[in-house]
Specification:
The chain is α+β, with helices and mostly antiparallel strands. About 20% of the residues lie in helices and about 50% in strands. It has a three-stranded antiparallel sheet with strand order 1-2-3, with helices on one face.
């Protein structure tokens, strides 16, 4: 089970999302993209 967090922000007029996980000394970036289908694609990434 992954404990990724999602940070939401706006870039121009579009809402963007960034999936990440913070370790003790490491930051893992998993995905960045538009809101459309973001969670579906992120779930596919973790289930592969």
């Amino acid at each position: 089970m992954c404990l990724a967090r999602v940070y939401k922000f706006k870039s121009g007029n579009q809402q963007m999302l960034l999936a990440y996980e913070a370790g003790d000394e490491t930051l893992f970036l998993y995905a960045i993209g538009a809101h459309e289908n973001f969670y579906r694609d992120l779930k596919k990434y973790f289930n592969r």
